[in-house]
Each structure stands twice: as structure tokens, then as C-alpha cells.
Design brief:
Strand order of the largest sheet: 5-8-2-1-11-13-14-12
Distance between the termini: 52 Å
Bound molecules: adenosine-5'-diphosphate, N-acetyl-L-glutamyl 5-phosphate
Helix content: 40-55%
Number of helices: 9
CATH superfamily: Acetylglutamate kinase-like
Strand content: 25-35%
Order of helices and strands: HEHEHEEHEEEHEEEHEEHHEHE
């Protein structure tokens, strides 16, 4: 009996401490990009799902955009297909496109939706084809001025924000797989960071959070020190100097783009830290890196 009281009092005091942060975010939308490399094990995934469900319970509207690069890799490996990447984007021929869509929409998306629902959330899994959520076109990547054809890699033309607003403002947690659809119905494989930033822009989210597999943005990839806050100009300078590369580039550029289009806060955080979402939202210091204008 006394133990139960203690637990209740502990929970109540945590809630009281969190109240000012909850008030700030109440009724607002937070876009959370959950990267494939941060989905390390079931325990961590469970914590992430608990945090997202808790946000919804306390009146914040989370929208989850997930990756799944490692899941795609492992299925391609079984099929003895090797992927090439150009500037972090997977060269996607027709077979790879089919696998990417099958894995992201059929496996990764449904696993996350099911886990959220197990935690008491009401998650709905969709990809960019559903309700024409992510209208896309073929993307060409430029390397040293040369135009490179990456096959079925897409770029976002527009986001049908209404679909997400309807779900998020209601009791649902939308979980989005980064597959876009062209005017002629062609499916496109789109980098999940880019999709998260475009969605945050389209719905004017309060916050955009990238959960990845490093502690935050560092002065360079091999440095131990994380940058707790940095401006967009400084980030662009770091890219020019080659201090940010690979999969970190779409994240930081996504943050800057989102900030310029009305998103208030953008963060890069370590998805391997237990309850990283709550630590970021419910503490003054936050964790990881905040990018600001
Ligand atoms: N300056 C930097 N600071 C931190 N990480 C960096 C930096 N530059 C490049 N990276 C790399 O970016 C990676 C994160 O991107 P990525 O692996 O694509 O993540 P995700 O799968 O979560 O989208 C890190 O593991 C790191 O190797
Ligand atoms: C074009 C492109 O590269 N698409 C990505 C989509 C998944 C993704 O972005 O997953 P992560 O966030 O886990 O890296 C891919 O095929 O891997």
C-alpha cells in the first residue's frame, strides 16, 4: 500500500515538473523522424513507442516518419542485390523499388504501428501513396556538376497536409513510410529525412526531431564533443568545409528548410538513449543538437 503511494507520488511529481513543458506544446504538432539506424533493438523501440504514445495522451500531436534503410539492406542481401549510394541516396532500380516499398510499407511501418497500438496508442500507418500524401517526381542528383540518374529515387513536389491534419488533430498517431507517388502513379523511394522535413513544413509543426545513431551534431564525424546549439549559417559553413557528410546532410538541411518555413524548433538527437524524446521535450537543457536560424 505504502509502496503504491510512493510510486504514485513519484509519478505525480514528475508530471508536475513536466507541466510547464506540456503547456507549451499542448495541441501542437511534433514531427518525429525515426531513423532505421536508431531502431537497434526491441527494448529501445518499445521505449520510443511509449514516449510517442505518452505525448499523444498529454495533448501533443506526434507525427512519426520512419526510415528503414537497414531493413531494406537485409532483404536486398537475401536477394543477393547490392545497393549503391550517391550522396546518401540509394540508387533504386525497379527491383530495389519493389523491395523498398514492400519493406518500408509492409514491414517497418506495420511493426511500428502495431507497437504503438500495443502501448495504447491509436496509430495509423500510411505511405505517400495513401490519399496522395506525398506527391513526388523523379529526382536527379548532381555530383561535381554532373547530373546522375538514381532510378526511382523521388523528390517531394507537395504534401497533402489535410490527410495528416485530420488524423493528428483527432485521436490518431500517423506513422508515415517515405514512399512518394508520381502524377502517373509511379512509386518513388524518398529519403526519410527529407520527407520528415517536408511534412513538418507543410503542417507548420512546432518541432521537428531527427532520431539517429549519434549523440548529436559534432564538429566533425570523428569528434567526441557534441554541439548543443548551432545556427543555420554555421551549419552551412560546416557542410562547405566537409565537416558534415553522408546521412547527416539531409537532416541538417531538413532542419534549416523547416525553420525557414515556420517550424519553431528543430533537433537532432540520439535515438539510442532511453526516453530521448521525453528528455528533449521535458528538460530545459534538452539533449542532442538544436539547430536555429
Ligand atoms: N558532423 C557530424 N556529426 C555527427 N554525425 C555525422 C557528422 N557528419 C556525418 N555524420 C554521420 O551521420 C550519421 C547519421 O546519419 P545516418 O546514418 O544516415 O542516420 P539515420 O539512419 O538515422 O538516418 C552518423 O552516424 C555519422 O556517421
Ligand atoms: C532514396 C533513399 O535513400 N531512400 C531510403 C529510404 C529509407 C530511409 O531513408 O531510411 P533511414 O532513415 O533509415 O536511412 C533508402 O532506400 O534507404
Amino acid at each position: 500500500m505504502y509502496e503504491e503511494m510512493d510510486t504514485l507520488i513519484e509519478k505525480a511529481s514528475i508530471l508536475i515538473e513536466a507541466l510547464p513543458y506540456i503547456q507549451k506544446l499542448y495541441g501542437k504538432t511534433v514531427v518525429i523522424k525515426y531513423g532505421g539506424n536508431a531502431m537497434i533493438n526491441e527494448k529501445l523501440k518499445n521505449w520510443v513507442m511509449e514516449d510517442i504514445t505518452l505525448l499523444k495522451y498529454i495533448g501533443v500531436n506526434p507525427i512519426v516518419v520512419h526510415g528503414g534503410g537497414p531493413d531494406i539492406n537485409s532483404v536486398l542481401k537475401k536477394l543477393k542485390v547490392e545497393s549503391q549510394f550517391v550522396n546518401g541516396l540509394r540508387v533504386t532500380d525497379m527491383q530495389t523499388m519493389e523491395v523498398a516499398q514492400m519493406v518500408l510499407v509492409g514491414k517497418t511501418n506495420k511493426e511500428l504501428v502495431s507497437m504503438l497500438n500495443q502501448k495504447g496508442g491509436k496509430a495509423i500507418g500510411i505511405c505517400g501513396i495513401d490519399g496522395n500524401l506525398i506527391q513526388a517526381r523523379k529526382h536527379y542528383e548532381y555530383v561535381n556538376g554532373e547530373k546522375i540518374d538514381l532510378g526511382y529515387v523521388g523528390e517531394v513536389v507537395s504534401i497533402n497536409a489535410k490527410v495528416l491534419e485530420m488524423l493528428a488533430k483527432d485521436e490518431y498517431i500517423p506513422v508515415v513510410a517515405p514512399i512518394g507517388v508520381g502524377e502517373d502513379g509511379t512509386s518513388y523511394n524518398i529519403n526519410a529525412d527529407t520527407v520528415a522535413a517536408e511534412i513538418a513544413k507543410a503542417i507548420k509543426a512546432e518541432k521537428l526531431m531527427f532520431m539517429t545513431d549519434v549523440e548529436g551534431l559534432k564538429y566533425d564525424k570523428n569528434s567526441k564533443e557534441i554541439i548543443s546549439a548551432i545556427s543555420a549559417d554555421e551549419v552551412l559553413k560546416m557542410i562547405d568545409e566537409g565537416k558534415i557528410d553522408g546521412g547527416m546532410i539531409p537532416k541538417v538541411l531538413g532542419c534549416i528548410d523547416a525553420l525557414k518555413h515556420g517550424v519553431n524548433r528543430t533537433h537532432i538527437l540520439d535515438g539510442r538513449i532511453p526516453h530521448c524524446i521525453l528528455l528533449e521535450i521535458f528538460t530545459d537543457k534538452g539533449i542532442g543538437t538544436m539547430i536555429h536560424l
